[in-house]
Amino acid sequence: MNRREALSRVSLMLGGTLSAPTLLAFDRWSQTTPENRKTGASILNEEQREVIARVAELIIPKTDTPGAIDAGVPAFIEVMLRDGYTKSVQDVFLTGLGNLAGKGLLTASPDQQTTLLKQLEANALANAKAGTVSFWQLIKELTVWGYFTSEAGIKSSLDYQPIPGKFEAIKIKPGQKDFMYGNQV
Amino acid sequence: MNLNINAQKAQTFDAIVVGSGITGGWAAKELTEKGLNVLVLERGYEIKHVEDYKTAMQDPWEFEHRGKITAVSAEEHYASMFFSAKEGSQFNFTNDKEHPYIQKRPFNWIRGYHTGGKSLIWGKHTYRWNREDFMANAKEGLGVDWPIRYEDLVPWYTYVEKFVGISGQAEGLDVLPDSTFLPPMAMTAPERHFKKSVAQKLNRPIVMGRVAHLTKPQPWHTAVGRASCQFRNRCTRGCPFGAYFSSLAATLPAARSTNRLTIIHNAIVKEIILDDHAQKAKGVRVIDQNTMEVREFYAKVLFLNAGTIGSTSILMNSKSARFPNGLGNDSDQLGRNLMDHHLAVGARADIEGFEDDHYFGARPGSLYIPRFRNWGNDKRDYLRGFGYQGGASRADWARGGTEPGFGADFKKKMTQPGPWKMSLTGFGEVLPDPNNRFYLSPDKTDKWGQPQVVFDADFSANDRAMRKDIMNDGAEMLEAAGFKNVTTYDNPAAHMGLGIHEMGTARMGKDPKTSVLNKYNQVHTCKNVFVTDGSGMTSASNVNPSLTYMALTARAASYAVAQLKAKNL
Ligand SMILES: Cc1cc2nc3c(=O)[nH]c(=O)nc-3n(C[C@H](O)[C@H](O)[C@H](O)COP(=O)(O)OP(=O)(O)OC[C@H]3O[C@@H](n4cnc5c(N)ncnc54)[C@H](O)[C@@H]3O)c2cc1C
Ligand code: SF4
Fold first, then answer.
1. Pick from B270, B286, B340, B288: which is nearest to B110 by CA?
2. What are the Glucose-methanol-choline oxidoreductase N-terminal domain coordinates in residue numbering (chain B) (predicted)?
3. Cα–Cα distance between B537 and B507 in angstroms, integer?
4. Measuring CA to CA, which residue among B420, B414, B356, B358 is closest to residue B391?
5. Which of B89, B126, B320, B495 lies 20 to 30 Å (CA to CA) from residue A43?
6. What share of chain B has pLDDT > 90, as a percent?
7. Contact criterion met (CB below 8 Å) for B102 and B452
């Protein structure tokens, strides 16, 4: 049994608890990007960056609280794409960005943008297969994760309790914000 | 000439303890408190309690990858990904790439090579073994009989429990004997409902998990600098409050306060040096993990506490004319009977009807369901039993990663507590089997020239049969509570090692022909060497083992000092 097999077995173990993008991040052997990619040039161009920002903001828009862009989500997605995923997953992501740009996402009206994403989500759900990952799934998970772990996102949207000091069962009021504990990352 | 004598003296101690983890910490504390000058040799780097818990106080947004594991660290720490898939704690798990091992059959060897060993990353579930656990082998004719019984350990359990500090509740159950407790942690509303329903409908007790966290520190806890648990559940990053039991927070400070403790880090114990004439150990030979320098240290008594695989490897590597197959290995049992607990099997459910119930605080710990199979009048077509850890919690914002939808409503929804869910995971007992083993590779070495460990072990038909009951009984209990969408799982990729309770490879027994250690964890044929970690376990029980290792260590240390004083060692 070699390391690659060992790791894929562990990934299988994790199947129930982690989402597909996270699992795929574990399989590094198929990757061909250089080990020193942290110091290398970015894999994204300006248009791709704009698509990421637009989609992230559509997933978590600015309302009476900050949105994905205010919370720095696009930069987080770029870092994760660089450090967290194999070349093949990066390619899925880049293709997804290209398709959306091709469909005119950046010049579409807000309603048209929402329609485009709805189609994207429906397709992703219809074609979801174990062991594969879609562009939509990747950007959705990264956006949610990036937002609800950002300082702006946590402080505006959740009740952050870094040191609760006690544990007790309580009653909550309708609409009350959920607690966030530091252990959730 | 004089210089040499002085150097030799500087390297000579009353006792040497190999490893600073859960059991090494206990050996150090007991031996120093009983007046011995003790050297602890730790192969890993030094971690200073509190000072070196670099991520413990970090907020989520301070992590570059917000807690997610990168592709590079996933490869380097592949064995522990199951437990450590977090950015803030991965470095507390050993790097498998630097410390390789071979899997003839799949085995995950999850380690912590640093001060405190796995005491920094353990789950802290702490249970006594029961009377039957020490008699099952004899009754069933499996393995060998334990040379001790539950009663031999009772005073030692009580002794270590007090110092450790275990939160929990006395229940008066034979299957799960009570410890000395600090106040238990609270159950959530659905958990209380679950406990009540299962008691009424199935007559099975469910208890609050007994965990080594200070819920009400006692003077002897605060004396070593420990404080009450703050319910942050960031424990694997290290606890700046010293609220959970670790060598770093508890036993090593106690040992240090005697002024008789020396710890040397980066010291990989390679082998035991044997005194050929006296049939005793003289000391150990050590490689510095950074400089590769080889040194020797001497003592009257040696305690091996390098973790089951680590300690047994040292014995295997200590070859001499008297012990050509490894120190104390006349029985050929060294490395055999490798046991673990099997997990990654259980049941889950959704819970409806507790929408206004929530909890404040992050509880480090869960419920515990004690063994009920093959217990009392229950008889199965497999041997031994299993218990469950698990609990109910509300889904948080992270559910948004997989839940459909986006936009303002979606965002709002993720700021609200999600649905309640419950999950139960079984921990099953694995039987001793001489063909489940590990050995040292004859040709593959690590970067220190030490032979790599080869694992060759797997679950048995008995284990597989037990897994069916773990799934079905879990589902039955969740249904008894009226929970929805009950599903079961048995991960086909589950294998040994992932139970994180490896033990048994230098078993205790009455007969030197069939066992390596005697009833005081002393090598039968080399009396001044004690092995008091999981190596000595003769069978595996189904509850977490570390409390029993601690009790055995304290007992062996007390015996060793008495024997030293009587000049028998
Ligand atoms: C994620 C996780 C969760 C766990 N949860 C629980 C739980 O809830 N309850 C429970 O009872 N148990 C639990 N365990 C198991 C528990 O951690 C072990 O049983 C316990 O740590 C064993 O103690 P030890 O002293 O034998 O080994 P360790 O604590 O691992 O210490 C061994 C030490 O020896 C050092 N060492 C190794 N080889 C050498 C050498 N050649 N020379 C010098 N030093 C050496 C190591 O660096 C290490 O510091 C868990 C384990 C893991 C990994
Ligand atoms: S939950 Fe308790 S033991 Fe764990 S890190 Fe927080 S204070 Fe320490």
1. B340
2. 230-341
3. 5
4. B420
5. B89
6. 92
7. yes
- What pairing do the DSSP bridges indicate for beta strands B261-264 and B38-41? parallel
Q: What angle do CA B185, B191, B197 make, to 5 degrees?
A: 130
Q: What's the CA dihedral at B306, B308, B312, B314 to 10 degrees? A: -20
Decide if A26 and B188 are in contact by the 8 Å CB cutoff. Answer: no
8 Å CB contact of B401 and A144: yes
Tokens 């950046």 correspond to: A106
How many other C-beta atoms can be found within 10 angstroms of the C-beta atom of residue A37? 15
Question: What are the structure tokens assigned to B308, written together?
Answer: 């089951």
Contacts of residue B83 in chain A, CB cutoff 8 Å? none
Rounded distance between C-alpha atoms, residue B337 and residue B147, angstroms: 16
Q: Does domain B1-133+245-331+505-531+553-568 have CATH number 3.50.50.60?
A: yes
Chain A residues within 8 A of B349 when measuring between CB atoms: none
Condensed to tens digits (0 to 9), the pLDDT of residues A98-137 reads: 999 999 999 999 999 999 999 999 999 998 887 788 999 9
Provide φ and ψ at B484, rounded to 5°: -100, 160
Q: CB distance from B88 to chain A under 8 Å?
A: yes
Q: Are B499 and B139 in contact (CB under 8 A)?
A: no
Euclidean distance between CA atoms B384 and B137, whole angstroms? 10
Q: Which of B84, B108, B118 to probe ligand 1 with, by most ligand atoms within 8 A of CB?
A: B118
Helices of type H across B276-366: 308-317
| Burial classification of residue A126, based on how many CB atoms lie within 10 Å of its CB (0-12 exposed, 13-18 middle, 19 or more buried) | exposed
Are residues B150 and B175 in contact, defined by beta-carbon separation less than 8 angstroms? no
Domain spans of chain B, in order of start: 1-133+245-331+505-531+553-568
Protein residue with least CA distance to atom 1, ligand 2: B233
Ligand that comes closest to the CA of residue B284: 1
Between the CA of residue A27 and those of A40, B26, B127, what are the distances in Å?
A: 21, 39, 37
Structure tokens, B534:
């999981």
ipTM of the complex: 0.92
The owner of tokens 């559509």 is: A58
Round to whole Å and give the CA distance between B102 and B113: 18
Rounded Cα gap, residues B469 and B327, in angstroms: 41
Q: Identify the DSSP state of A128.
A: -
Q: Which amino acid is at A160?
A: Y
| Angstrom distance (rounded) from CA A27 to CA A89 | 10
Q: In the structure, which protein residues have their CB atom closer than 6 angstroms to any atom of ligand 1?
A: B 18-24, 41-44, 83, 110, 112-113, 117-119, 121-125, 267-269, 305-307, 310, 314, 500-501, 533-534, 544-546, 549
What tens digit of pLDDT does each residue of B141-199 get?
999 999 999 999 999 999 999 999 999 999 999 999 999 999 999 999 999 999 999 99
Residue pair B138/B146 in contact (Cβ under 8 Å)? The answer is yes
> CA Rg, chain A, in Å?
18
Q: Are B101 and B109 in contact (CB under 8 A)?
A: yes
Interval between CA B119 and ligand 1 midpoint (Å): 6
